[in-house]
Sequence to fold (190 residues):
Amino acid sequence: MAFSELAKKRRSCRAFKDIQVTEEQLQTILEAAQWAPSPLNEQPFQFIAITDETVKAQIQKISIEAKQTVIDSRGPGWVKKYPMDFIVECPLILVVVSDPNKGGLGSYFEQPHGALQASSACIQNMMLQAADLELHSLWFTFFNPLTLKSILNIPDRLDIAGAIMFGTPAMESKVPKRRTPVIHQNRYTS
Ligand SMILES: Cc1cc2nc3c(=O)[nH]c(=O)nc-3n(C[C@H](O)[C@H](O)[C@H](O)COP(=O)(O)O)c2cc1C
Fold:
């Protein structure tokens, strides 16, 4: 598939069929992750592969709690309708853990986010690879990271870049509109 087609094919999925992600598909996705760029090639990312129903249910629980926090804080009204069922239905969740001490030289000159930037590139690689395998995915962050760290035994010094869901879509996902790119010529103009 042409890359331009693949980039548009990747779609955030919030409803999954009960079909497992195979070990071969997982390895292909992780290989794509490995080839992401990172500052000083420090590859600051690690992965927790979650397939266990109990762990998925724990993630669902803390996500429902996060949703309630948004509702209680009078956040956007649509959040009330946000479904959380797909968390337990999703066959594979890869939690991407990022080491902020592996962010290259940026911390010397006001660029402290190198590790998370690399982890984000790694996540995009995985999602595009999944789309190429006819799997859909979701970059999911609707949880308190401190609570997720305690559930998954992730040390405090590490960051969570996202919980990435992979599986076969149960329905067609909406295609959210894109804005026309804003391009400035040579210098930023307001
Ligand atoms: C850093 C990041 C965090 C996100 N967190 C969530 C999330 O918690 N729940 C969710 O449903 N979608 C989440 N998304 C997905 C976006 O909503 C989605 O990418 C956007 O609406 C565009 O849709 P598309 O991915 O189908 O093109 C997240 C995306 C990014 C990049």
Remarks:
- The first helix runs from residue 3 to 9.
